Amino acid sequence: xxxxxxxxxxxxxxxxxxxxxxxxxxxxxxxxxxxxxxxxxxxxxxxxxxxxxxxxxxxxxxxxxxxxxxxxxxxxxxxxxxxxxxxxxxxxxxxxxxxxxxxxxxxxxxxxxxxxxxxxxxxxxxxxxxxxxxxxxxxxxxxxxxxxxxxxxxxxxxxxxxxxxxxxxxxxxxxxxxxxxxxxxxxxxxxxxxxxxxxxxxxxxxxxxxxxxxxxxxxxxxxxxxxxxxxxxxxxxxxxxxxxxxxxxxxxxxxxxxxxxxxxxxxxxxxxxxxxxxxxxxxxxxxxxxxxxxxxxxxxxxxxxxxxxxxxxxxxxxxxxxxxxx
Length: 326
What we know:
This protein is α/β, with parallel strands linked by helices.
């Protein structure tokens, strides 16, 4: 019987973590069938042997795809979509990287039920805990700073993109409709491009239930590489994200222009922080303000603070989170 959900997991040198991820998939209590698709990018630490062992134990559920050469080192990015999306048989896809895992055995069922009842949504995510490479919890959540279930827009997701392990989306909304720029833009953040595309096809729901664990600073991970970026690399990183939003605005004929404008302003503020000289920042801020005439005065002030005094901006953000979660 054809599965309703495809769990897609990409791995590379995750031997110390992959079993926890696989067990969290297999522990899911559902009233529907699901499959588990795993892509291993030529691991050298025994990851491949572990996932093949699980495939032998659950041949009707787990399907493994391996590489003879590491594709990431040859410039390949957005692994989920290049190597697993074409094989997924489910109408929904649940994502989880090999070093992350799920902590709620009802995660898939809760997300599936919501999507089945709300056809105008294209993606659903959830609150996550954030852990280090040893499994120590760093903070109670990883995602938007909200206490209740809510919808997320472009600005919300730019402000705080939900972790991969929380993402569950309707494959039918984008199957055969992925534009060329999806693979050409923003190589270092496939999740970001994916969420921006999905928001053009339907709404995004955020569940306040804590149902997944997001692991940071694992060697070779995107968040570890981000920490090592130079200011020039950071500037390009934010510009790439802005370019994606401009592609979305063009593709949708400015249907989401107001929300996208706010999101671009947010990213531009972060980009301005990479300029060391104050006069360079001032020039960039003036350019940004000229291009954001529909944005509220409140957001413009936040943009100026973010661009010119990032420490103050960060402190204000901490105060806001403390107030929200107290």
